[in-house]
Design brief:
Keywords: Cell membrane, Lipoprotein, Membrane, Palmitate, Repeat, Signal, TPR repeat. It holds the Pfam family TPR_8. Its main location: membrane. One of its GO terms (biological process) is receptor-mediated virion attachment to host cell. The chain has about 300 residues and is mainly alpha-helical. The chain has a domain at about 220-290. It has helices at about 45-60, 65-80, 85-100, 105-115, 120-130, 135-150, 155-165, 170-180, 185-195, 205-215, 220-225, 235-255, 255-270, 275-300; strands at about 10-15, 15-20, 30, 35-40. The protein has a two-stranded antiparallel sheet with strand order 1-2. A hairpin with a 5-residue loop joins strand 3 (about 30) and strand 4 (about 35-40). The longest helix has 24 residues, at about 275-300. Residues about 1-30 have low confidence and may be disordered.
């Protein structure tokens, strides 16, 4: 069952699986604005070991094109997980040269096009994913996000409905459906979210975020809940990355742009590069900065 909107990848080398996670202290503090902060995630030494093995295999092992494509893809996933997008993009393109039907690689390429604002290219990449793998549900999410940022709202809602329909117990899917629908009607989107809340898996962390959107939880309650029931070292930073992003989106919707910008910056500071929330916080921050600059220029024309 998919519980988080993130890329999860496991590289298998010599029969041993190495989970691609970092190591983070769960020590946190509160800054002068009252925002909960956490130390950013730093890459684990296991990533360096895995990269060394992949580099050795790609440079010296006799591999079929399919095997070589897969190792390029695996290395690209590691680069992506630590924020090295140019290196990961090179690997994904190399993987596609060797294995043109690798849907996972097209999915990453589409994400990068979205982050760069090249929406038509992003749509084409996600279309390719769905042609190769019609049941690839995250392609609906990622194409929906591209359509959302490309301001093609009706199509974005359609993709998010497809994504949501495949797991109606997932709070993240309900949230992204709300975000796209709210571009058309905030009132109708909230009514639907209220119903969708009744379908969610009980006691899931994402429910706290949905409840915040519905006005049933405060920011303080969300941050308190983020500390509860943690199961691995990165989880607190991951939850804060998500909380910062979704809180920022509400502040943005309410016209509190400076507050939203601060929360988007905090999401970026967690270094959870492979989370959807981290990927698009930079786009959101750029949009806010452009809006604030335009408003300031209008007030003080040269």
């Amino acid at each position: 069952m998919i519980q988080k909107m993130r890329t999860v990848a496991v590289v298998v080398l010599a029969g041993m699986s190495i989970l691609l996670t970092g190591c983070v202290s769960t020590q946190s503090g509160v800054n002068e604005q009252g925002k909960v902060m956490v130390e950013p995630v730093m890459p684990d030494y296991k990533l360096e070991i895995t990269l060394a093995k992949l580099n050795e295999i790609l440079s010296s092992a006799e591999l079929t094109d399919e095997q070589r494509a897969r190792f390029h893809y695996d290395r690209g996933v590691i680069y992506d997980s630590v924020g090295l997008r140019i290196l990961s993009r090179i690997d994904f393109h190399q993987a596609l040269k060797l294995q043109p039907n690798l849907a996972d690689a097209y999915n990453f390429i589409g994400i990068y096009y979205t982050q760069e604002g090249e929406f038509e290219s992003a749509y084409e990449a996600f279309d390719a994913v769905l042609e190769l793998s019609p049941d690839y549900d995250y392609a609906f999410l990622n194409r929906g996000i591209a359509l959302y940022y490309g301001e093609r709202n009706a199509l974005a809602v359609s993709d998010m409905e497809s994504f949501y329909s495949q797991d109606q117990k997932d709070g993240y899917r309900a949230l992204w459906l709300y975000l796209t629908e709210s571009e058309i009607s905030v009132e109708q989107a909230k009514i639907r979210l209220e119903y969708n809340r009744t379908q969610l898996t009980p006691n899931a962390w994402s429910n706290e975020l949905v409840d915040f959107y519905l006005g049933n939880k405060s920011r303080e309650q969300v941050f308190a809940a983020a500390k509860e029931g943690l199961s691995h070292p990165n989880e607190y930073a991951e939850r804060l990355c998500e909380a910062y992003f979704y809180i920022a989106k509400i502040s943005q919707q309410q016209g509190n742009y400076n507050d939203a910008a601060n929360y988007f910056r905090l999401a970026l500071a967690t270094n959870i590069y492979d989370f959807v929330e981290h990927r698009y916080a930079r786009i959101e921050l750029a949009k806010i900065n452009a809006k604030l600059y335009a408003e300031e220029s209008a007030k003080n024309p040269h």
